[in-house]
Amino acid sequence: MNPAKKRWLIIGALGLVFVGAVILIAASILAKRVEPFIRAQAIQYLRERFESEVELARLQIHVPRDLPLRLIRGGWRGNLAQVEGSGLSLRHRGRRDVPPMFTLQSFRFEADLGALRDNPKIVKSVTLEGLEIHIPPKGQRPDFGSKKESSAPDQPPSSVVIEEVFIRNAVLVILPKDKLKVPLRFDIHDLRLESAGKDVAMKYTAVLTNPKPPGGIHSTGVFGPWSAGEPGDTPLGGDYRFEHADLGVFNGIAGILRSTGNFKGTLSSITARGEATVPDFRLKRAGSPVPLSTRFEVLVDGTNGNTELKPVFATLGSTRFTTSGLVVKHDGDARKTISLKASMPAGNMRDLLRLAMKGTPMMEGTIKLNALIGIPPLDGKVKQKLMLDGSFEIANGKFLQSRIQEKINELSRRGQGKPNQQGMDEAFHRMSGEFKMADEALTFRTLAFAIPGAAVNIGGLFDMAADTLDFQGALMLDAKMSQTQSGWKRWVLKPADPFFSKRGAGTFLHIKVVGSSKDPKFGLNRGGTSPAEEAEKKGRVPAARLGSTRE
Questions:
Q1: Residues paired with residue 188 on neighbouring β-strands, in sequence order
Q2: Which residue of 53, 234, 330, 464 has the fewest CB atoms within a 10 Å radius of its CB?
Q3: How far is residue 75's CA from residue 67's CA, in Å, rounded to a whole number?
Q4: Residues 6+ apart with CB under 8 A from 514
Q5: Average of per-residue pLDDT across 295-299
Q6: ∠ CA(297), CA(300), CA(303), 5° rounding?
Q7: What is the spatial distance between Cα 353 and Cα 175, in angstroms, rounded to a whole number?
Q8: Phi, psi (5° rounding) for residue 64?
Q9: pLDDT tens, position by position, 163-185
Q10: Would you kindly state where each structural domain of the chain is located, as residue ranges?
Q11: d(CA 382, CA 76)
Q12: DSSP characters for 228-249?
């Protein structure tokens, strides 16, 4: 290569390097000039949109390296700048007594340099990493009076439309009114929002983890528009699928729950309707798994977790029942108060006893139950503070444990005056009672039990903590005292029949039941008034005695 040609090649290469350097320097200068503008626009938008004080640790703008050449060829529009930032926080109305309403680890989006002065500005998509949203408790936000304009009088409000938002590894935290209480936390793994325009709800698809019971939720629906003045009033709605929720985190119960349904409302007040199933529902330390399914409508206050059941229709095995009531936390209480009303018109005793006891259920029959259930906001285990008040009736009952049923059969034969007759019907007519429970003590105002030929009406106290029984009542037989025996005993007792025949019964005896549930002791009560007599004095006849023994 001749010297002249080589010299021109060197000059050309140096020229290209110089032009490249000029382009890079120009691009850097343009980026530095664009960065403050985009930063100011972003902060202005966030400040106005969420009525918040904005803190931004870092913002970087990356423009195309050949931007100067592009500007010469076609102008600003169509040239995209890559925007990256980190350390973003928004404090709602400048509050420092609660966590920032929004914190963000990092974000990125593309901005059209030619559209920076458009109104509204269109942003195709934004990606957010490590977003934390803290929803303050409703009614505890400071009142700053009339809203202050964040922009200067000669500067029009900024308007931005974000067409698509991708959020990864986010956390939604709903702050309680009681600062000592643990906030409600939802981990959101992936969230995609699609905008339909300014001040219009965004479509979303979300995958998140429910805090308690833990399980995965997949949800689609609409969210917004954002309510800057009261974030808790921001609308939302959609459908959900809740799977693999482990009920074992709660005291006393276990099973894996699956639920589907829909919801609508606001962040602070949500109405949910749906269905839930627990194929292996069981009570810990007792019983066997029984399938449970429900249809429900509940109203949830997201700021404090208060819940209204209105009502819940449930099926346990083959038994249907309904529950309605409230789970609320009153001011000054450390825990929630549970107040429920349960109604079971025709339950299967096998289902209930399978849930409550291990092995074969001790009896079968149809149970009607109505009860008020209360758990006050006290410390201690649920069983120590559980309160019940209700009534029940069992029809067509039969004890499945042969030893118990044999005793019932013997009493029935003697009550009918046929002590030696075998092969009689083993079903008893019915059992009914009115009960009340508090402080681990179960009080039966009346407990009535009727079988062919006999009826028992008792009342008293079962102290579950100490496992002690103290019941008094009456045994009424159709047969006279002598007819309950056979052979020579029948003739010996015949003169005593008039002394025991009263109150319409062939034989009337005052009885008592003491001891423990494992070893009850039955005997005659020589004194006192039975619950049956007290009920009659007040004009109330126990249900099991109505036409009891002579049907």
A1: 170, 208
A2: 330
A3: 9
A4: 468, 469, 470, 471, 520, 521, 523
A5: 89
A6: 175
A7: 41
A8: -55, 140
A9: 888 998 888 887 777 676 677 77
A10: 399-551
A11: 69
A12: SS-GGG-EEEEEEEEEEEEGGG
